[in-house]
Amino acid sequence: MEKGRIEIQQLNLWFGTNHVLRDISLSIPARSVTAIMGPSGCGKSTLLRCINRMNDLISDTRITGRILIDGRDIFSPETDVIELRKRVGMVFQKPNPFPKSIFENIAFGIRIHRLAHGRELKERVERALRQANLWEEVKDRLHDNAFSLSGGQQQRLCLARCLAVEPEIILLDEPASALDPHSTARLEELIIQLKNEYTIVIVTHNMQQAARVSDYCAFVMLGELVEFNRTEKVFTNPNDRRTEDFLGGKFG
Amino acid sequence: MKRRRIADRGVRVLFSVNAVLAAAVLLGILIFLLAYGIRAFIPAGAVDPEDPSTQPLTLGGFLFGASWNPDAYGQPEYGIVPLLLGSLITTVLALLIAIPMGIAGAVFIAERLRGGVRVAVKMAVELFAGFPSVVIGFFGLLVLGPALARVFNVPSGLNVLNASVLLALMSLPTIISVSDDALRVVPHSYREAAYALGASPWTTAIRVILPAARSGILAAVMLGFGRAVGETMAVLMVAGNAPIIPRSLFDPVRTITTTIAIELGESAFNSIHFFALFALGFILFLIALFTNLIAEALIRREKRSFTL
Amino acid sequence: MNSLPADRRRRKYFLSNVYFLFLAVPVIIFLVFVAYMVFYLFRNGINVISWEFITRPPERGMTAGGILPCIVGTLYVTLVSLIFSIPIGVFAAIYLAEYAPNNLLTRMIRSAVRSLAGIPSIVYGLFGVALFVRGVHLGLSVLASGLTLGLMNLPWIIATAEEALSSIPGSFREGALAVGATKWEAIRHNVLPFAFPGILTGILLALARTMGETAPILFTGVTYFTRELPRSPLQKFMALPYHLFALATQHDQLMKARPIAFGTAAVLLILVLMFDGVAFLLRMRIATANKWQV
Predict the structure, then answer these.
(1) CATH superfamily for domain A6-97+169-247
(2) How many CB atoms lie within 10 A of CB B48?
(3) Are A35 and A47 in contact (CB under 8 A)?
(4) CA of A111: which chain C residue's CA is closest?
(5) Could you tell me the domains of chain C?
(6) What is d(CA C199, CA C58) in angstroms, rounded to the nearest whole number?
(7) Where are the domains of chain A?
(8) Residue C1 pLDDT > 50, yes or no?
(9) C286 to chain A: which residues are within 8 Å by CB?
(10) B residues 112-151 near C, CB within 8 Å?
């Protein structure tokens, strides 16, 4: 079986008494970009955060159903969350570099997992920065504070930070929502480049973006999966009326 | 991997144990004061019927007795009424000065001061809150006392008034800081709404912002009360310390705190007197605890009232 | 839009400013009072302070000589208190800020810690007598006093440390967790280093206030006079605030001891203001240096 495949089966999630995700089943193929679209507040970010169990941090959360990654249930007691999050990287809505040097930002994950040190650590940092198309811009100032970078650079830095621990899956939570159009374009380019090696899931409320970068597209509304299909199909000939309305701008 | 998980669990246990430990101090104080205080009423040792100083106290005599005189030959008396009144009178007088000053000051600081001036004033207030109380008492003894004696033409300036003025001064930082916080959490939209109706900044501050912050300001008053009622050294140095119920502002006064400070050193260990002082401490503990719990509830209420 | 005539409107705003001026009066009275107190104590105390004064023990029934044992005693007992309260306080704060679930137990712990901050210092003194002096037989000693003071400043340290930790943005923790850090690794590498200056500020403020406390040490180890500096933590000690109290009220030749009392007050105030000052400088630096606080 191909590595990096995500199988979501009858997933339900409650925050307290609030039923946020309803019976979601979805099969995300490996080495492709899958976009999760939907109006704001529909639960798409929550769905994404289930895949690396970031919702564990929120108290009073209840989950039923399964998410299988490479055939193994991530909610089962044997699953090591730390290992899971190493395999499933994440980039957040707002760039969140650590207030340390550029180098240290990337090195952090490599160090805590003891993946490399010394010379090899430096090589890995460089590789991650190259993969994120950031190396050329920062190679002369690796020891500057990461906060001195522009917003777009910061977001690519966060992506590099996630790539440095060599994940199989990358989750992107509206990664371009805080960026200007130019930075957004560069980031999208990068996403398309990376899909040959990684399974990428991107949450966005921007449908043009979904159309541009994704191979598959899921449309979520009010916690329910309305439609999931190849992106061309969803955009040209949706099965569901609600998808059509969303694409037509009836709700945002 | 395994080591990392063990470390993660280990520190978690370490931190939670320390948190519980810190909270347990409160329980520890309660238990020790109670255990020691109760022995003034139920002595552990032998009671010598011939020796009045070994006679256990009655709860009624302790709580309602109008005289505190542990050294009286023959019949020592342990009535806390004069001490309790001493504490209440000085504290209430202090608050009569400190509440209007503190609230007015807080409104001025919150509404009118910005930037560097605000930082400087808040810093001065906070700095004074950290002044050693003996230093303040020393000032009261040497400067305020003689000044009061001269102005009011009384023989001694070491009296109720002096203690109250110092306590007012010492509770001001608490009242100002907590009120200022309370005023500043009032949402900006309240102010905008008032301005939109053509209200002046003054009307807005007094009629809109101040009432909206009333729970927090009440909490400030409670905390100021707690600060004043628990103060020991400054009062000890300027209050004259006679254990009588004062009849005027210029009489000396003895509070709960100063009684403990004066007498614990001279009471024999394990004597009724010794344990009676712990009973006194227990009463003080309860007063402080309830004052705090009420203040906390008020602060919570204010915060809640602004969150939708 | 505004129906009031211009002159009435101007009058209204003028009056508004005048009223606010009245509110400034209590603030000014307070500041003048404090300033005069500091001025008065320094004017009378500063001439007393000399190299001899801070390096010599008291002489001739404390009407001459210096206050070295008091300075040493105060620093010693304060240090003991902090050695005790810093680890417990900071660990407890980390628990409350980072781990504590939102449940009844947490609320009780928080409430207890806050209540501790409001317990009068003389009550801590009684507790110290019962637990440390008598209970575990430390006797009247630096250790008994230090532990009593440590209990008293524990809630101050917890409160400021928790605040410092909570001011670190959640995204630092999320970012670390997302690359597979354990919770402790996230806190250790991406929260504590940035909260450290704030925690240190709280410790310095606690230190300054602890130095000036008298009531908790009154019956747990401080003494009127001892010839030698405390060598072991089980000895009695002299302390600046108690020395000031004793010279001001208990001495049999009050007037002769007065200059020493002024000197003691000035030294104590200088020490307290010094640590407070460093704490304030640190706090201002934090406010301007933190790039993530936009």
Answers:
(1) P-loop containing nucleotide triphosphate hydrolases (3.40.50.300)
(2) 10
(3) no
(4) C181
(5) 51-289 (1.10.3720.10)
(6) 37
(7) 6-97+169-247
(8) no
(9) none
(10) 112, 119, 121, 123-125, 127-128, 130-139, 141-143
